[in-house]
Amino acid sequence: MRSRSTNPEGSAPKQFPRHSKDQNFQNMKHKQQDKDSTIELDEILPCPKSEKPHNGNGHQADDLSRDDLLFLLSILEGELQARDEVIGILKAEKMDLALLEAQYGFVTPKKVLEALQRDAFQAKSIPWQEDIYEKPMNELDKVVEKHKESHRRILEQLLMVEKSHRQTILQLEEEKRKHKEYMVKSDEFISLLEQECERI
Fold first, then answer.
1. Residue 183 falls within a domain, yes or no?
2. Would you give the DSSP letter of residue 13?
3. Which of 43, 66, 116, 117 could make a disulfide contact with 92, Cβ separation 3.0–4.6 Å?
4. How does pLDDT run across 4-56, given as a tens digit for each residue?
5. pTM
6. Any idea where the Cortactin-binding protein-2 N-terminal domain is (predicted)?
C-alpha cells in the first residue's frame, strides 16, 4: 500500500510559505495597535489643527464613535466650568471690600465676602441686588422729613406762644397803668378826706 504522505510522482512534498503568512499577520497586528494607540492619544490629548492627521476623505469626525464624542464633550464642559470658576474668582477679587460689605450687610474678612460673591457668580444670580444700605437711608430720609415737619409745627407753636406772651405782657402793662391811676386817685381822695377832717 502506498502511504498518504508519499508523493505518487516521487517528488518532494509541497511546502507552503508559513513565514510570509506569519509576517503578514504580525504586520496587521502592529497596524491595529498603532491605530488604537492613535485613537487613545487623540481622545486624551487633542492635538491642534495644524498637527491633526488628515484622512484621505477629510472626514476624521466620522471615525469617532458616539462614546468618544461624549467623552470629548465632557472634557469641553469641564474646561468651560473651570473657566467660569476662574472668572468668578477674578471678579470677586477685583471688587471693593466696601461694596461687598454694603451688599451682604456685615463686616467679615474679605475672603469670606469674596467666596460669597464667587458663589453668586457661579450660580448666575443677580450680581447687584438692592443695596442693604439703601433701605436704612430711605428710612432715614423719612425720619428727616418727619423731623422737619415737627420742627415746622414747633415753630408755629412757638410763634403762637410768643404772640400770646406779648398780649399777656400788654395786658399786664395795662393793668399796671390802671393800678397806678387808681393809686393816684386814691391818694387824692385820701388827701381830700384829710383836709376835710382838719377843717372840721
1. yes
2. P
3. 117
4. 444 444 444 444 444 444 555 556 555 555 555 555 545 444 444 444 444 54
5. 0.30
6. 63-199
